[in-house]
């Protein structure tokens, strides 16, 4: 039976960043990933936005770790040659009735400590995004985009350089308590780990149950995207968001320009049963037209085509509007540290989450 100080379950950006931070403390670390490659679920099925930290309630982990994680992520991308663009973002009020909500969001962002925010007028908007319909906007200069797949690869390589053992195609199938840790059975081998980091994304609730941790529920929520045809990509320069939905399930169908130049609209929000269903009953492209035309009135349905989809691991049911990240030691099994419910702004926050998880592991082993 192999022995390891810390086993991380899940090789998305959260698990890889946590493994990197734990390895930096000099502990032996392995990462179990059920897929043949890392980051194939939520980490690479998203908008690739590096968030400023405007939207999240003050004092929450989502707020704090987004603001802490953003500069860490920009630095990491610079050092490891991950494509990114600190392009800035407009959050717009499309008519005058939305301006009070826009002003309240601006105040929330300022209260959260998001630097550089500006309330801007139509002249500013026209200069940056001449085709966008808006009366006023918040400009967030620190918001950007990152190539998510390149980020995953860079985190993997940085972890391997630090001594992390990556085990692809290795699904956790059972776990048993041991006086010296937890025995993890994968079908290929048994690993005795002193500490488990549960970074299993959509399957974090299943992993918690398997390793004797406390119960919680991950709600899979699909988000779908449409894409602007290549001939119309010049209509958009960077990132444009509407005001977030009042229900709190998402930030609305926003406009994202990727590092490769593609222009995406989305994501939508749909709670569903399956955690692996990206494609069944996809929305027709016509369903995106009204939301897109709110921001870009000249776009027609012929200018759109269906694009990808992703599934968020939410910790709250559809009748609730917010749940924070779950990042702490398990209350039932103290050998388990959770990094669960990592939806947006998880990509932005990943390195700060990794440092927080490593600190929890460090405190438990001191």
Shape: elongated
The main pleated sheet reads as: 8 strands, mixed
| H-E order | EHEEHEEHEHEEHEEEEHEEEEEHEEEH
CATH superfamily of the largest domain: FAD/NAD(P)-binding domain
Gyration radius, to the nearest Å?
21 Å
Residue-averaged pLDDT = 95
Number of domains: 2
The CATH class designation of the largest domain is Alpha Beta
Give the second-level CATH assignment, the architecture of the largest domain: 3-Layer(bba) Sandwich
Q: Tell me the distance between the termini.
A: 25 Å
Q: How much strand?
A: 25-35%
List keywords for this structure.
alpha+beta, FAD/NAD(P)-binding domain, D-Amino Acid Oxidase, Chain A, domain 2, eight-stranded mixed beta sheet, five-stranded antiparallel beta sheet
Word description of this protein:
This protein is an alpha+beta fold and 366 residues long. The protein has two domains: 2-45 and 149-216 and 322-365, FAD/NAD(P)-binding domain, CATH 3.50.50; 86-142 and 219-314, D-Amino Acid Oxidase, subunit A, domain 2 (D-Amino Acid Oxidase, Chain A, domain 2, 2-Layer Sandwich), CATH 3.30.9. It has eight helices and 20 strands. The protein has helices at 13-24, 61-80, 99-111, 122-128, 148-161, 204-210, 286-295, 346-365, and strands at residues 2-9, 29-32, 49-50, 84-85, 89-93, 118-120, 136-140, 144-146, 165-167, 174-178, 181-185, 190-198, 219-228, 239-241, 254-257, 263-266, 270-271, 304-314, 326-329, 336-340. A hairpin with a 5-residue loop joins strand 15 (254-257) and strand 16 (263-266). The two termini are 25 Å apart.
């Amino acid at each position: 039976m192999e022995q390891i100080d810390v086993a991380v379950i899940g090789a998305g950006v959260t698990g890889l960043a946590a493994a990197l931070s734990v390895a930096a403390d000099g502990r032996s670390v392995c990462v179990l990933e059920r897929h043949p490659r890392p980051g194939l679920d939520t980490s690479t099925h998203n908008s690739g936005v590096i968030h400023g930290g405007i939207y999240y309630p003050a004092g929450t982990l989502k707020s704090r770790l987004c603001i802490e994680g953003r500069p860490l992520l920009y630095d990491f991308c610079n050092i490891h040659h991950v494509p990114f663009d600190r392009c800035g973002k407009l959050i717009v009020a499309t008519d005058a009735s939305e301006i009070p909500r826009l002003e309240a969001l601006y105040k929330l962002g300022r209260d959260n400590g998001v630097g550089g925010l500006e309330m801007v007028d139509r002249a500013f908007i026209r200069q940056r995004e001449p085709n966008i319909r808006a009366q006023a906007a918040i400009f967030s200069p620190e918001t950007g985009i990152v190539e998510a797949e390149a980020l995953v690869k860079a985190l993997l390589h940085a972890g391997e350089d630090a001594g992390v053992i990556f085990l692809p195609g290795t699904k956790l199938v059972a776990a048993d308590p041991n006086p010296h840790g937890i025995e993890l059975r994968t079908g290929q081998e048994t690993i005795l780990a002193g500490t488990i980091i549960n970074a299993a994304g959509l399957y974090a609730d299943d992993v918690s149950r398997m390793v004797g941790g406390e119960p919680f529920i991950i709600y899979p929520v699909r988000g779908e995207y449409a894409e602007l045809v290549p001939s119309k990509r010049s209509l958009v320069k960077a990132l444009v968001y509407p005001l977030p939905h009042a229900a709190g399930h998402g930030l609305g169908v926003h406009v994202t320009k990727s590092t490769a130049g593609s222009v995406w609209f989305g994501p939508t929000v749909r709670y569903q049963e399956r955690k692996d269903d990206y494609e069944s009953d996809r929305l027709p492209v016509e369903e995106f037209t009204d939301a897109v035309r709110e921001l870009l009135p000249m776009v027609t349905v012929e200018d759109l085509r269906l694009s990808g989809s992703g599934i968020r691991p939410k910790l709250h049911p559809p009748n609730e509007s917010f749940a924070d990240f779950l990042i702490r030691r398990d209350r039932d099994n103290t050998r388990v540290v959770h990094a669960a419910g990592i939806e947006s702004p998880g990509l932005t926050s990943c390195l700060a989450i990794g440092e927080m998880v490593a600190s929890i592991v460090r405190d438990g082993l001191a």
